[in-house]
Give the backbone structure.
Amino acid sequence: DPGIYIVATPIGNLNDLTFRAADILKRADVIAAEDTRITGKLLKHIGSAVHMVSHHEHNAHIVRPELLARAQKEAVALVTDAGTPLISDPGYRLVRAARDAGVTVTSIPGACAAITALTLAGLPTDRFLFAGFAPPKEKGLRDVLAELGTVQATLVFYETGPRLARFLSAAADILGMREAAVTRELTKMYEEVVPGTLPALAAHYDAAGAPKGEIVVVIGPPLVIETSEADLDAALRAAMDTQTL
Ligand code: SAM
């Protein structure tokens, strides 16, 4: 059927491609891909010969009208290099334009590094805020951490090895003793989860140097001072005692 198909692809482990994704990537009329060499390997793996057009951050505004026009009568699949399109990846404007043009949009869900990291971090998942990539410059980074630091939710950041130590030291500075986890190379051979408080993780990666591979940092919600029922009773009794004196 004509329309735009948002297709999630693996984030490292080819077996994470869903049956539905493989099906649409073989049957689409055209695939809009971020890096056609990377997607080319995936297509080869599944035996797909569908033609690709390049659609990335820098040319998206130029190719979007053509993709939209084709999606009126053809199946146009959108993929990015890894994971779910639109999640710290291009695609949002294409979906928006498709909606505005009355073109059907279908999502084929699958791997996403943020969700995979959340499921491994051992931190609260009832409420989380996906923060994408933090700004690379110190001032911007600190501003974002201060702004998000007051949110009562687990925070999820995408990071890169070379920037990890700086990110963690700013986070430790601004957010304090929060529990966190550095997750790396998710779904791949050297998948790793390093849990710890922000100051401990900052010290660890400061000493260890830049880790290789792709990274998601998960930071637990602000600490709430836990008060037990017994503590509360004792405090109340003490307050009442003081009043009767
Ligand atoms: N759209 C992708 C998704 O659904 O997760 C994210 C794309 S974004 C350009 C790339 C970033 O995602 C990396 O810098 C890293 O923070 C994270 N990432 C992607 N794959 C990962 C993996 N296998 N392990 C850890 N982090 C990963």
Remarks:
- Residues 11-12, 80, 82-84, 87-89, 112-114, 158-160, 184-188, 214-216 surround S-adenosylmethionine (CB under 6 Å).
- The beta strands are 3-7, 30-33, 52-54, 75-78, 105-108, 128-133, 154-160, 179-184, 192-197, 214-219.
